[in-house]
User: What shape does this take?
Amino acid sequence: MVKKFSTNALKSKQLEEQDSRYAENHEYDYIIIGTGNAALTVGALLANAGKKICMLEAHDTPGGYAHTFHMGDFHFCAQVHYIWGAGPGGRVHAFLKKIGLEKDITFELMGPEGYDLMSLPDGKKVFIPYGWDKLSENIEKEYPGQKQAVDTFTNLLSKMRTEFNRIPDKKLTLWDYMTKWYRVRTLLRYRNKTVQDVFDECGLSKESQLILIANAGDLMEPPESLSIFAYAGLFGGYNTGSYYPTKHFKYYIGRIADFITEHEGCHIYYETEVSKIHTDGNTVRSVETKDGKTFTAPNYICNMDPQKASHMIGWDKFPKEDRKKLSYEYSPAGIVVYLGLKDDIDLRDFGFGSYNIWHNEQWDMNTMWKEMSECNFDNPWIFMSTPTLHTNDESNSPKGHQILEIASYTEYQPLKEAQEKGYADYDRLKDKIAGRMIEIVEERFIPNLRNHITVKVVGSSVTNEDFCLSPFGNAYGSRLTPSYYTTDRLKADTPFTNLHWCNASSGWAGIYGTVLTGSGLYSKLTGDKFYDPTTAPTDDEMIAEVQTRLKRESAEPTLNT
Assistant: This one.
C-alpha cells in the first residue's frame, strides 16, 4: 500500500519530541493550519512581531507546493520554478526585508537574453525579455508585421497593472465605486474578458498569440478561459524581473520555517493533520488532529483549502453569501517529470541555460488544451526547467550532475480513475504520458536523453492530492477565469470572528501571490502596512533596475562555468 500525505520522514525521536512539547501545554496567540507559503509568510511576520505561533502540518516537511523532496542525492522542488517580486521594491523582497532575511535569502536574475524561451511548431524560438519594447522587437524579428499589434496588447497590460495599484486595500464601498471609477476604467472595461478576447481585439497573428500564451501552464488555463487580469498579473510581473533563489527553493522554505521556530514559543508540528475544527457560535474553540491532539488559541488561520475546511466545520454554519464564494471550481493541474541526470551531459550544449523553455507541437493553444484534457499527447505543449543552470549553488544535486524538469497539463479524473483501479494501472498511464514527454524532448532538444537519466520521478495531480491534500490535485486553488477574478472573490474574512482564510483561493496563487496573501493578512490583523503598492517602484523603474543588473552581471563570471 502506497503511503499518502507524507513520506514518513520523521523519525520516532522527532515524533517523541513533538509529543513532549505538546504535553507542556504551551499557550499560543495563533494556531495556523498548514505550512504552505501563504501560511509561512503570515507566520513569519507574526513571529517577528512577537506573537506565539503554532503551525500544524500534515506533511513531514513545510512549504506545500513549494516543498522540496529528494530522491537519492537529487533535490526537486515540487512545483515552483521561478518567481517575480524578489528584486528591490518587489513584494517578496519587502517581506524578507521586514523579517531581516533579505541578505540571507537571495535570488539570481534569470536571463540575460530572456527568462522564457518559446519554442514554436515551425522550429523558430523567441525569447521573452525584460521590457515590452524588447518583446515586440523579438517577435517582429521572427514574424514581421506584428509589432504594432503586440505593442497595442502590451500597452493594455501596462494600463491594467497601473490600475491594479489604485484599488484600495479594503472592502470597496458604494462611495468608492461612485467617486473613483474613472481611475480604473480599463479594469472595469476588461473585468469579464479572457486572454483570447483581448488577443482577438488586438488583431494578433497565430504566431504572436502562441508566443504570448506559450506559458499558459503558469496559470493552468487556456486563453479562451483565462482571465486577462490573471495573465496581466503574472506576465507583467515576470516582465519586471524573473528570479530563482540562490540556494534553491529548499533553502527559501526551510529558512523561513526555521525563522519561525527560532522565536520563543513558536512551534511547527509535522505529520499532524487537522481532522476537526470545533466552533462555538461565531468563534472557533479548538482544532483536533488525527492523532488525537487538541490545540487552542485566541486566533486561528486556515491555510487548508477553504472549501474543504468549510465542510469540516459544517457547511450549514456558513451564511448563503459565504457558501456562494466558497463554491468555486478548482483549477486544473499538471504532470511533472523530475529527472536527475548523469555527469556525462551538459544541458547547455543542447540550448538550455538560465531560462525556461516552453515547447509547442501545434499553433493553437486552445486545441492543445482540449486534446491534452483527454490524455491525448500526440501534439502537446511541454515546459522544461533547469534549476541547476539558474545558480552556482550545487546543493540540490551531486557535483557535476544536472536536473531537468519537464511539465505539462493533464486532467485529474483519468489519473484518479486509473489509481482507483489499482496502482499498476495508475503507473502505466502516468508513465505513458511521461514517456511521450521525454520522447518529445529527445526529438526536439536532447537526442538519447534516456541514456543520461539516473533518477526519474513522475508527479501528477493525484500526487498533489496525496501529498499536499489539494482537492482534485488543483494547481492554483480556484480557477483563474474571469468569474473568479473579481471583487467577489473569496477573501480572508470568515463568519467566525477569530478565524481567517490564508490560501491561494482566498488570495492569489504562486510564490508572489501567496506572499501577497500572507502579508496582506498580517497587515489586516496588526495594522502594520509595511508595503504600500502606491509608493513602490513602477514597472518601468523595476525593469530599468533589472536591465542595469544584467549589464553589471554580464561583466562577471558566467553561472556554472
